[in-house]
Structures are given as structure tokens and as C-alpha cells.
């Protein structure tokens, strides 16, 4: 499995995710992930499967470098974080955030129209 450590790190850096966040999402410790990325630990089949399913990574690419990195377009991590935060807000704050977002879109559109 030469090269898999580089491909795992490549996925993580492409998605702009810290080792802590990446490892949390595949149920391993950040220390273990660091050891894998350094090539000091072997990657278990379970970890390969979790990376493939959690991040939509093409398993053939992860194992052998064949094909595209992603099976489907990569997840939008910022959008996922925003949705998680939004779900935690009370209704009045959700309404406020929606109104502010609409205002930002209006400003953005006005700026684009000026160009």
C-alpha cells in the first residue's frame, strides 16, 4: 500500500480539514492519523472504508492511485459546518441569520451589477 499515506493526506488537505477533524469523522485518534500520514502505521481496511464512505473518496484511487480522487463531488465542508451551527440556534436567531444572509446576498448582487 505504498503511497496510500500520501493520498490520505492529499484528501485531507484538499478538503482543508485538520487532522483532528478528519480523524474524528473516521473514528480514529489524531495521533493514529498522524502516524498513518507519516507512514509509521499500516492503514486498516476499516479505515480505508470509512475514508471512502465519509468523504466520497474513490476506493481504487485511495488504494492504488487509479481514477479520480472522489467518487462524487467532494462535500462542501463549510456548508456542513454552517448547517450544524444553524441547527443549534434558537428560532429567533435562525430568523435573524436568514435575514442577515438575504441582506448579504443583496449587497453581493449590487456589487456584481456595478462591475
From TrEMBL:
A Pfam short name: HTH_19
Leader peptide range in chain numbering: none
SUPFAM superfamilies to which the protein is assigned, alphabetical: lambda repressor-like DNA-binding domains
GO molecular function: DNA binding
Residue span(s) of domain HTH cro/C1-type: 8-62
Segments passing through the bilayer: none
Protein name: Putative transcriptional regulator
Organism, as annotated: Leadbettera azotonutricia (strain ATCC BAA-888 / DSM 13862 / ZAS-9) (Treponema azotonutricium)
